[in-house]
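Field reference: sequence -> structure
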Amino acid sequence: MSDRYARYTRLKFDRPHARVLRVTLASPLKMGAMDADMHREVSEIWTDVDADPTVSAIIITGEGKSFSAGGDLNHERKVADDYDLRMQVMKEARSLVYGMINCSKPIVSAARGWAVGAGLACLILADISIASKDAKFSDGHLKIGIASGDHAAIIWPLLCGMAKAKYYLLTADTFTGEQAERMNLISLALDDSEVEGKAVELASRLADGPPAALRWTKQALNNWLRQAGPIFEASLALEMMGMGGPEGKEGIDAFLQKRPPKFDPNAPI
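Structure field:
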């Protein structure tokens, strides 16, 4: 494996095909939640992969029974109190989204178990997204009192339409991989035992295909997402502003303390 990947501690790498790099989210936290190191690494990996001449296609998958349950709320509570840390997280979130969009090589995601928050971003920003039918998804931002900003505004309406996007982003309801496929949020929902094999099959086909044609097709299609860049930038800024405010702090505290949050219905907006 190239030395360019030696610095990563929260991502594992292997080659199921000579020109396919499989990136495995290897979190030390429960349900594959992202600690600060993993969040940073997931925001940086796409530039390294894009520059690697030995890679023609990428798989991103989770380790164990979950893809990733999103950010570590103990760390995010620190982020809520620390402006500099909050700006660093915002920079990483922007790099994750644009990194996947601008990576010239096709990305296949393979999810089993939970995919939430930044984990869900990695799943649905992939060019081909595969999940088990019984996988569990949620954009949980509203549950912790912050705007849904890290990826949803740039891609959800395009994939599943505004009605479904508003329903699931405003309610933060949980839904399955099978439901996600029905509403076109992901490409394929399969039996759990088939997910990883299908990801390898598809990534291998892409790696053996015409590289320029594949990359130019992705480049052209992702201009739909680039057009939504200002929408994404606004949503990300609003998320970070809310995280540092009373609703974000109360929402995270309530979640960590396992109690219902108490939001001020007359809060200024």
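Note: Residues 100 and 239 are 20 Å apart (CA to CA).
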